[in-house]
Write a structure and sequence with these properties.
Number of domains: 3
Strand content: 15-25%
Structural class: alpha/beta
Radius of gyration: 28 Å
CATH superfamily of the largest domain: Luciferase-like domain
Strand order of the largest sheet: 13-25-23-17-19-21-22-16-24
Shape: elongated
Number of strands: 25
Largest sheet: 9 strands, mixed
Amino acid sequence: MDETGAARRPMKLGVWYDFRNPLAWRIPWQQLYNETLDQASWAEELGFHSVWLSEHHFTDDGYMPSIPSALAAIASRTTRVRLGTAVLLAPLHHPLRLAEDLAVVDLISNGRLDIGLAAGYRSKEFEVMAVPRRERGQRTEETVQLLRLAWTGEEFSFEGRSYRFDDVTVTPPPAQRFGPPLYLGGSSVPAAERAGRLGCGFAADSGGSLDLYRVYTEAFTVVDGGLQAPDIKTNRLVYVADDPERAWHMLGPHLLHQSNVYAQWAREAGDPNAAPADLTDPEQLSRDSFLVGTPQQVLDRLNAVFAEGPVTELIFWARPPGVTLDDSAASLQLIADQVLPALAAGPATSPGRMLSVENAATGDARESPVPDVTERTNWGRWGPDDEIGALNLISPAEVVQAARLVRSGKTFTLGLRVFDERGDPLSAERHRAMHVSYRDWSHYASGKAQVEACRPCYSDDGIFLSCHGTTHLDALGHIWVDDQLYNGYPARTTAGSLERCSIAPISQRGVVTRGVLLDVAAGRGVPYLPPTSEITLGELLSAAAQAGVEVGKGDVILIRTGSLPRFYEVGPEEFWSDDSEPGLSDDPELLEWIDRTQIAGIGTDSLANELPHSVRSDQLFPLHRLLLRNRGLTFHEALWLEELAEDSRADGCYAGLYVALPLKLVGATGSPMNPVFIK
């Protein structure tokens, strides 16, 4: 939030290249490629979020025809930026060969690849490649299905209208579990509907429209291997200069070439909306279609683009056809210096209000909830009666894959010792565990119990233990806000005992999936994090990279902070002196990553998983609301990870079969457990 309390959301910019070399400004091809590859890697240094490439074939100006090759070159020169295809023309590629090429790029980039696909439209490309143009829609849909099948690493068969394969396995698998995220591009209603129905992101060409955004979001369906939530990327031409008129004079001929070529292709394809003839003067171009201006002017235009719809990223032509390297670099430098910092903070809006797809048709353009990642929920996603939340993401396929990770049989139990002589790590409002002996040797020695010749002597006991008093799993009804639990159940259902979202449905299901250890403390080179330390997305990604693991659908991530070992080392009084524990940030980028990876749960060696008092939102226990109550993620708390971490540092294996079985406590808000991690 800003100083006025206005809501803010981060916005991302990516650079976009097509490697075109028009005859009017032609330079040696090798020079063009070397300059553009160098600039793409420089864009990472400047702080841009992503680098995207576009594809066409058989053009006079050398439009990029081989995206995977060029992306592999950029991947080898960069380490952080996302890499994307905007777009690959799916019908023109053999789908399994495409799966192989893209998996290789994903491996070279260490899992930084995003895939944009489209059906294509240019007649000459279909004619030369002998692909029936009328099949481009169905071939695109089948390519999406085949990419997802191919990237499982399992043998499969497929029979569609355009493609048929029997008993085939595609290797190598991509770095990202289940493959790179898929986006479908286009500027038509069928394209938007197709993207939503197939569970893909939507790459809206030239900004799209609110009508297309609505079609896409209404059609969006969660499918295996797809995105968890709708995601829209759009594109523009962006150029920043201190003297916009001079910039327009320089850019005009290049933009005229670009516009005329696209218009010619559209006419050849029979597009009724295509311009009837080429333009002859740059002044005939609509300046409103391009974001050209001073840093502040372009920033204002970008804020407007992001405010008018649920767009998460805008990519822009960084070097329009024929523009010199120096002219394009000057704009990128100004954007990096004066536009990116402001976009990182996000546009200020009235608190909690922004235009949404849902109200666009009514004209209520500033009076609807912000389509903010912090407010996403999974309510209704798995039906109105769902009480297990993100555990629905763990399908039998995920269980089987997790079981296949068992190689050595090494077993690690992750529960704390109860009745430990050093005390039990508990928050103040919870009672310490009590152990009561019902019968033991002393009962017989004192005569309270009689030795009977016909039966053995025995001991018996009982305990009083808080449902959250040791290693435990939270029920989804543990937290409510605004009188609502997870999935919209009313808070009154918690009176006396949880009627809805108790631990019992989770216990009946059990948690059997892949566990991934992320050793953040080791990443910082310390035995334990300070009690007020915030764990960022960057640290989780760094820990995953160090472990050689790509976090994915259905995983439970196990985050080592060293907090509970510190409790036993310093004792309860010093441990609680700061009234805090290290934990996860509630940064929107972290929430976006959690949504995107589709993890099923989070576990830590602390009592709450998150930093108890958010330095960003000033909220207490914000992730219990944002993740457990809103998204239905399972919270695995107070885990003991020391022996597992030590062994993982020794053998380099940080992923294994994770089994968490809470007790079947009817109506309870959580349950003690002793999870098992098996390698």
